[in-house]
Specification:
The complex is a heterotrimer of chains A (281), B (276) and C (321). Chain A is α/β, with parallel strands linked by helices and 281 residues long. Chain A is built from eleven helices and ten strands. In chain A, the strands form two sheets. Chain A has a six-stranded mixed sheet with strand order 6-7-8-3-9-10, sandwiched between helices. Chain B has 276 residues and is an all-alpha fold. A two-stranded antiparallel ribbon of chain B has the order 1-2. In chain B, helix 4 crosses helix 6. Chain C has two domains: 246 residues, P-loop containing nucleotide triphosphate hydrolases (Rossmann fold, 3-Layer(aba) Sandwich); 55 residues, no CATH class. Classes of the chains: A alpha/beta (281), B mainly alpha (276), C alpha/beta (321). The interface between A and C is large, with 42 and 49 residues.
């Protein structure tokens, strides 16, 4: 089944032209896929997230999420929100309760689940993000990464089919970022969760099956992360850069060494090693 | 970094922590009644005994409970002085042959007794409220209030929504405290001075903190609204609650203790000779 | 101004059950003119330390109500603390901390969140007016604000009368930085100045910092989580962990200690990760761990192999390196 599809979607804030509007967006995300959306701040990638779950509605075009039209009735939107969980940037602004389990319970309460079921879902969601030992903790006292994992748990407790991360790692330190990305990857690989990851960290996009690059409200590049990163010059014109390992391998290529374009340190190390032994023969 | 113990939950497991918040709120009200019913030190002594029990079974360090008194120390001292100066007693205190009487002030032995009485009263009220807030999470406190106020639904008071607002407000307090500190530091680094100058200057000095704070609160509110909507919040009636409050044997015990306290206080008022 | 700290300790909420010792025996010297990096994960004490530098956090002995305690007899005497920024003694309560703050500019995380005035001009002038001993002449203020705004790369005439809240995120951050550098501080301390920016924004900000370092503030102290950023920009780095300074090294030395860094929960720069993997295979490539530096070093290494084995018929495949 198709998880998300955008057909010629246009949107602008208050009719204002420019940075924050979307222009003729067409895209599809299949169920179980991991898709990354890259782009500068203001390229429209966050607007995309808000369109996917009816927080915003398009001016023209059609958005269908898990078979339901996103510009439909309030009941349709409610249905979509049950299917689409969104984790936002600032973990502090997503928590409604002062105790972890009460916060995780918020979503299930909203969809009117019975008590026992809510309890089961809290167990499930906290286990999924590896925070089961923090059930009674106070979010304010947790680290950034832990807070964001709680926010993810709060979203998971509604049991969505699709998880959208709207720059959810932007405010975290590297350790927090790693924690969150590990959770996301596991959810996708092990639970078959459809993931739409909106980010400006190039390294994070490497985990995705497919990626889109957005620029000024349009999708300007699409393909596997590898394909996109192999077009480094084009990427530069959208003010994005390769992951550091990619930059190094490119530099070596420019100096005339036969290394392949690598995106991860492990690959690059192997490549240099291969190159060195090749030279040694 | 900040001293915000009053109203801050102290996370341990104890008898008092496990009591139903509704019972605890009712207990607080009943306790206040008992304290005010106490016409003399006997009654206060009984109340004090109950207070000691509460603190002991809450497993919150006495120091933490006492810290909440610090915040209202001024109030206690102020009322004490008023009582001391204006209480209409008969036996004026004499120190070194000088009677402590001047203009409309008259310090009497009865006045001193009454001052101590009033101080004890306020002290106990503050302590018992602190025990409540230290042993009850703000969330279960609002849950308790919500549940107790449910009858108001019949006169169309949106109890549910009010409770949610309350719980979010409580949840945001630590975040906003951090924010205030951050903004103040940033402005102090730019030479702002919050502790010198006259009242006008001081009020003006607050603006560089207030504006960013307000803007940040608005930004947070907007993001929180989005996040809540995204998590399927509609404010509809079909919403269920995970937290279910249940009375247990603990609450029965608490109710019995309260009944005994009030009865005791009333009996002591009637049968014991007055000290005051 | 040289920054010198010795045996510095600091405890939040001393004497309560919430007491946290944030600094433990910190000794660190930052020379005038350095572009100095401070790294460490959240809670390592780095924020507490940098807030000392302009007196936002005062040592007990620098607080007004401080009275020296008589040392207990027989108790071990701790080594004497010291904290100097230039000629300012930050442990002395008689120090003029306002004068210090004018010399040590501090840019906090997300500095755009502290903008408050109606116009960009007023916001930037705020610090200038605060620190002035007597009211400044209009033209003096104007010149200073103009210089500051132009230095951060904004068009003075176009922006000075606009509301800071109508600007884009990147512009807001620049205005906020202008509001700090307007007093021409000698030391500029920045806490994660690039947080939340996209790659282009980060690049622009780092080049702004280098411009400031070159001709505005002699010393830059730069706090970051991003090890790639540190590798590319800093002359020396202090690694904070658990309230203390674990190392003070150049990035090159620092990143050769892979194991230690990972133990401290710090992410290695990508180049250092590659170097580490190669090291395990017996290939040692030493570099400053910036992408460019590492690529150069790797290229040099590979071509040295080529020269050692000139008889190989692989010549020309990669061109003359």
């Amino acid at each position: 089944m198709r998880a998300i599809s955008f057909e010629h979607v246009c949107f602008s804030y208050g009719g204002e032209e420019g940075a924050f509007s979307l222009n003729d967006i067409c895209l599809t995300v299949e169920e179980g896929e991991f898709v990354a959306v890259l782009g500068q701040n203001g390229s429209g990638k966050s607007t995309l997230a808000r369109l996917c779950n009816g927080l915003l509605s398009p001016h023209s075009g059609r958005i269908v999420v898990m078979g339901t039209d996103a510009s439909g009735s309030a009941a349709d939107i409610f249905e979509i929100r049950k299917n689409v969980g969104v984790v936002f940037q600032n973990p502090d602004n997503q928590t409604v309760a002062s105790i972890v389990e009460d916060d995780v319970a918020f979503g299930p309460e909203n969809i009117g689940l019975p008590r026992e079921e809510i309890g089961r879902r809290i167990d499930f969601a906290l286990r999924a993000v590896g925070m089961e030992d923090y059930r009674r903790a106070t979010p304010a006292r947790l680290s950034g990464g832990q807070k964001q994992r709680i926010a993810i748990a709060g979203v998971l407790a509604v049991m969505p089919k699709i998880l959208i991360l709207d720059e959810s790692t932007a405010m975290l330190d590297p350790r927090g970022r790693r924690e969150v990305m590990d959770v996301i990857r596991r959810l996708n690989r092990e639970n078959g969760m459809t993931v739409l990851l909106i980010t400006h960290f190039m390294e994070e996009a490497l985990l995705a099956d497919r990626a889109f690059v957005m620029h000024r409200g349009e999708i300007v590049m699409r393909g596997t992360p590898r394909e996109i990163f192999s077009r480094a010059d084009e990427l530069e014109t959208y003010s994005l850069s390769l992951p550091a390992a990619g930059q190094i391998s490119r530099k070596l290529q420019q100096k005339g060494f036969p290394v392949a374009t690598c995106l991860q340190p492990e690959e690059l190390a192997k490549e240099i090693e291969r190159c060195a032994s090749g030279q040694n023969i | 970094m900040k001293d915000v113990t009053f109203g801050q939950y102290y996370p341990v497991d104890s008898f008092v922590h496990k009591c139903d918040p509704r019972m605890k709120i009712l207990f607080l009200i009943g306790y206040l009644v008992a304290v005010f019913l106490s016409a003399d030190f006997y009654g206060l002594a009984a109340c004090a005994a109950v207070l000691v029990l509460c603190v002991a079974f809450s497993r919150v360090p006495v120091k933490s409970v006492l810290r909440s008194v610090k915040g209202v120390l001024f109030l206690i001292v102020f009322t004490a002085i008023l009582n001391l100066l204006f209480y209409r007693g008969e036996t004026t205190v004499v120190i070194a042959d000088v009677p402590l009487r001047w203009w409309i002030f008259n310090i009497t032995v009865e006045g001193i007794r009454f001052m101590i009485f009033v101080m004890c009263r306020i002290f106990m009220l503050v302590m018992i409220s602190a025990v409540l807030t230290l042993t009850t999470t703000p969330v279960s406190l609002t849950d308790g209030l919500e549940s107790l106020l449910t009858p108001l639904k019949w006169i169309r008071v949106p109890v549910h929504a009010l409770a949610l607002i309350m719980s979010i407000a409580l949840r945001m307090i630590p975040t906003l405290m951090d924010e205030i500190e951050r903004i103040m530091n940033a402005q102090r680094a730019r030479g702002a001075d919050f502790s010198h100058g006259g009242p006008v200057k001081r009020v003006k000095a607050i603006i560089p903190v207030l504006v960013p704070l307000l803007l940040s609160a608005l930004r947070r509110a907007e993001e929180l609204g989005d996040a809540m909507e995204a998590r399927c919040y509609t404010g509809s009636r079909t919403r269920t609650r995970y937290k279910k409050l249940t009375f247990t044997w603990r609450d029965l015990l608490l109710a019995l203790l309260l009944a005994a306290l009030i009865a005791g206080v009333v009996l002591m008022n009637v049968y014991l000779p007055p000290i005051l | 101004m040289r920054i010198r700290a010795e045996h510095l300790n600091y405890t939040y909420n001393p004497g309560t059950e919430f007491a946290v010792q944030a600094l433990k025996d910190v000794s660190l010297t930052i020379e005038e003119g350095e572009f100095f990096g401070v790294v460490g994960h959240t809670g390592s004490g780095k924020s507490t330390f940098i807030q000392h530098l302009n007196g936002l956090i005062l040592q007990p002995s620098a607080q007004k109500k401080y009275k020296p305690k008589k040392p207990k007899k027989g108790a071990p005497v701790p080594p004497p603390s010291l904290l100097h920024v230039g000629d300012f003694d930050l442990l002395d309560k008689k120090t003029d901390f306002r004068a210090l703050r004018a010399k040590v500019g501090m840019v906090f995380q997300y500095p755009e969140h502290q903008l408050f005035a109606e116009t960009v001009f007023d916001d930037v002038a705020f610090g200038l007016k605060n620190f002035a001993k007597e009211p400044l002449k209009g033209e003096t203020v104007e010149r200073a604000v103009k210089d500051a705004l132009e230095t951060v790369g904004l068009d003075y005439a176009a922006i000075k009368d606009r509301s800071p809240f109508d600007l884009s995120g990147g512009q807001k951050r620049r205005v906020a930085i202008a509001g700090v550098i307007v007093t021409r501080p000698e030391v500029l301390v920045l806490d994660e100045p690039a947080a939340g920016l996209d790659p282009l924004g980060k690049r622009e900000l780092m080049s702004l910092l280098h411009r400031l370092h070159a001709d505005w503030c002699k010393t830059v102290v730069f706090v970051s989580h991003d090890m790639d950023e540190v590798a590319q920009n800093c002359s020396r780095v202090a690694v904070f962990a658990d309230g203390g300074v674990k190392y003070t090294l150049t990035p090159r030395e620092l990143f050769s200690r892979f194991g230690d860094l990972e133990e401290l929960g710090l992410e290695l720069p990508a180049a250092a990760k590659v170097a580490r993997l190669l090291h395990e295979k017996g290939i040692d490539i030493e570099s400053d761990c910036t992408p460019d530096g590492f690529a150069d070093a790797a290229a040099a290494y590979l071509s040295s192999l080529r020269k050692e084995t000139p008889a190989q018929p692989r010549d020309g495949e990669g061109g003359q390196a």
